[in-house]
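Bug #77: duplicate submission created two jobs. Keeping one. Sequence:
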Amino acid sequence: MALYTRILVAIDLEANSLQVARHARDLASALGAELHLVHVVRPVLISTPMPPQPVAPDAMMNMVEVSRQAQRQMEGLANELGLRDGQWQVIEGNVKDEILRAATELGVDLIVIGNREQHGLALLWRQTDDAVAQRAPCDVLEVRIRD
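Kept job's structure:
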């Protein structure tokens, strides 16, 4: 029985995402594992003015465009990695919660996520990779991202 048979790689679509995705693809290939990609789009926080007024249509259109752009980027990344439809998805919501939900729904036994070095005030906030690693239903591999 293989150590890992189904791997989920969480992609943030930043400049070094391809590095993380290739690392996960190579690992999946070496293990004969199935690879899945996920990207989570954070919802735009909309505050309504006082007294309550309708939500600005521009804010909603911006979220739609962000999701469309993420879909295009993920499709290109999936094609470059040789993945087919159904092996990648773009989800809207809380990043760590949606990564964990996808991992559970897909029944993965390994999550691969990028890890960027943090400096200054960023060290004070709990990072997504740490939160995923602590709550994951499976093993987590953090790929160090080098600029």
